[in-house]
């Protein structure tokens, strides 16, 4: 296993082929056995092979005593656990990448194991605890414990959605707010699915993920508030804004634009053609000239014309 012949090992201490990083632990366990403090021991350690390579082994040592109970010698067995250590390293790397991905996405993983007649067992990932502002040892013990962490205004709806999903065994999805122990409110989006075990009908597991969407929600709320202020300013000033994308021909009007032209959003489709049709007949040539790329002024420019609204009223507008 290590490449040595029997002749090369006879008479040598195992410490001689033990990696320096494991010699102290190995020596300490042997000393405890020599003093009679332990009857046996097992140690995962590294060995130095004959060709200089490192081998991971699991050493098991037991004493062999005489009739009087005095130790005659030690019986040691070493098992090659190189593949096991490699799998452990790969698992650790995978878990590290998963934790990092959760932090980057601000996402936490959770599971609930439910068995008939038993209290559900809840498990949270470390980052989910961070999202909720708690230590891993303080994660919820059950559904009611978690429900108490939800904002009072969102709690009833959350409970209703969760109970409906559990009863129907259908995917669960919910948006709600939580209140951290320090009083900070965070916005959460959770989704989960149920896993069934056909061999154990009474067993049910729910696996889910929760994302902290607080910053996104604040950005959305800020944008909506900004749009509301713009709409109010346009209403007060009787001013609308529009956008015309040359590449696609798409035209977008603000709410106030529809009001100025006396049209109803949803029934009237703004386009260059529908806009031109609303221009007063005596002003169409001027507007046509200004809208023709090769004939309109260079740079920024403004112009006025009359429009005929849907009810026949004539209005003066400025662009």
What would you say this structure looks like, in words?
This protein has 319 residues and is an alpha+beta fold. The chain has three domains: 6-86, Beta-Lactamase, CATH 3.30.450.20; 101-217, PAS domain (Beta-Lactamase); 238-318, Beta-Lactamase, CATH 3.30.450. The protein contains ten helices and twelve strands. The chain has helices at 6-9, 20-34, 82-105, 126-131, 143-147, 152-168, 214-237, 255-261, 272-278, 284-291, and strands spanning 41-48, 54-65, 71-80, 107-115, 121-124, 172-179, 185-196, 203-212, 242-244, 251-253, 304-308, 314-318. Strands 5-4-8-7-6 form a five-stranded antiparallel β-sheet, sandwiched between helices. A hairpin with a 5-residue loop joins β4 and β5. The longest helix has 24 residues, at 82-105. It is elongated and about 125 Å long.
